[in-house]
């Protein structure tokens, strides 16, 4: 920064007031608290990433996923499970990186705490010294003012006693007046000495206040820059995790591009085929025709025809009483 803003904007007209310093300290304490909150956030995020990574790892290694697939789709599934495993490992590694960043934030926070402590001790001491000297100065002022009033009363008493004939009483009044004048001189010197001491302490306090403002402003600039960079790095890590995961999933997409539906179908057919000739149709066989055409035992049989012969033609017409006979066999119940 080109100029300090703290040292010119945190004063008070009241010499005992520390409101400017207190406001700066409150702001620095809030900044330290914010760093601690971000540190805790990183730790929580690391725990989430680690838990997710381990769960994803268990899912990839223990849960079946298309284990009976064959050929090109099987190879694609193997790539898929391997890349899911890799993604899980990346999340676990990210958790470790986040814990490392949280550790750096903690170290930075503690470093600033120690740096501030030195300045705080100096400022606390000078504030106490200033407050104590101010009290002494005010007490010396009161004493001086009281001695002045005592002297004034002694002078008035001497003036009123000018007509007294008792010399002893007048002498006592003159002695009291002389004593009061000496007391005024002594109290005046003491008061002026305290004023001088207080002014030296005030100048010392102002000098230390300016130094503290400059140190605290430099520290706050450093904290803001560190916090900003830490947050930037954090989101970069998250973005890199997404990029890395996408690169791994791209390997799965490439393996899926190599997957061939036709080759998988052909592979299955070649591995599990059972034959190319379907069964012949089941034909109707007339019971009586099979009995008539039965070959006696011992005789050679001719070729078995797949189709039965034509039905016998009745010898009588429908009007004939013997119409129901087929080869001398009556179809009517008698």
The percent range for helix content is over 70%
Strand content: under 5%
Biggest sheet, in brief? Answer: 2 strands, antiparallel
- Total count of helical runs of at least 4 residues: 5
Task: Assign the CATH class.
Answer: Mainly Alpha
Lateral strand order in the biggest sheet? 1-2
What's the N-to-C terminus distance? 131 Å
Broad structural category = mainly alpha
Task: Choose one word for the global shape.
Answer: rod-shaped
Second CATH tier, the architecture? Up-down Bundle
Gyration radius from CA atoms, angstroms:
57 Å
Q: Which residues form runs of ≥5 with pLDDT under 50?
A: none
CATH superfamily: Arfaptin homology (AH) domain/BAR domain
Let me know the average pLDDT: 88
One letter per element, helices H and strands E, the order comes to HHHHHEE
Q: In terms of quaternary structure, what is this?
A: single chain
Q: Under CATH, the topology is which?
A: Substrate Binding Domain Of Dnak, Chain:A, Domain 2
Please provide the count of β strands.
2
Main location: cytoplasm
InterPro entries: AH/BAR_dom_sf, F_BAR_dom, FCH_dom, PSTPIP2_F-BAR
Pfam families: FCH
Function: Binds to F-actin. May be involved in regulation of the actin cytoskeleton.
